[in-house]
């Protein structure tokens, strides 16, 4: 492709470098932390995520419709793309290999609890699991529940607790005691 | 869609295998992940390289 002049290796290097150094789940973590500390922002995020993250200077170019979904004690949310690997790149960066794997895509919509078990995650039987299937146009990010013991923490400290998997629904945020792990 | 791409609910693919400390691009030795990944990312993402 390079020899035929179809691609410029320098341009590819800059795209790769952007995903290695600038675009990643720390962006989504900032959004989650803000939602945990600012009720008005959380409301705006759940109503129209595109508009809400634009206020933080984050644009959503991949897929034109970002939807944030809130975990509660009653409902846990998980995101999948059963058809391929649609993912909210702008807020979570590059997707993990397992997200596009056949086991994850096939079983998440049929038996989400067993998929969570593969991640070492167990939810109370009383918690409903809602699975969101992504499309080319619509991408989802999970707003996980704020960990206990974080009263009074600022956004930056809270963001360090937010893991990539917690925003896909296949993990919990770190607890305060796990911060350096 | 009804075809091989629609995997939702299909049986027999086994366990999900999360990878601890997954690298952004795989293939650290020969760099295939960066080269292939960069080409895959390129369409429509020029703005990110600026």
Report on the architecture of this protein.
Chain A has 181 residues and is α/β, with parallel strands linked by helices. Helices cover 38% and strands 13% of the residues of chain A. Chain A has nine helices and four strands. In chain A, the strands form two sheets. In chain A, strands 1-4 form a two-stranded parallel ribbon. A two-stranded parallel sheet of chain A has the order 2-3. By secondary structure, chain B is an all-alpha fold. The radius of gyration of chain B is 16 Å and the shape is flat. Residues 46-50 of chain B have low confidence and may be disordered. Chain A binds chain B through residues 1, 7, 11-20, 22-24, 61, 80, 82-84, 93-94, 96-98, 101-110, 115, 118-119, 133, 165, 170, and chain B through 1, 5-11, 13-19, 22, 24-26, 34-35, 37-39, 41-42, 44-50.
Furnish the topology, listing elements before pairings.
The complex is a heterodimer of chains A (181) and B (50).
Chain A: H1 9-21, H2 25-37, H3 39-47, H4 49-55, E1 65-70, E2 75-80, H5 89-92, H6 102-107, H7 112-118, E3 128-133, E4 138-143, H8 155-159, H9 164-168
Parallel strand pairs in A: 1-4, 2-3
Helix pairs in contact in A: 2-3, 3-4
Chain B: H1 32-41
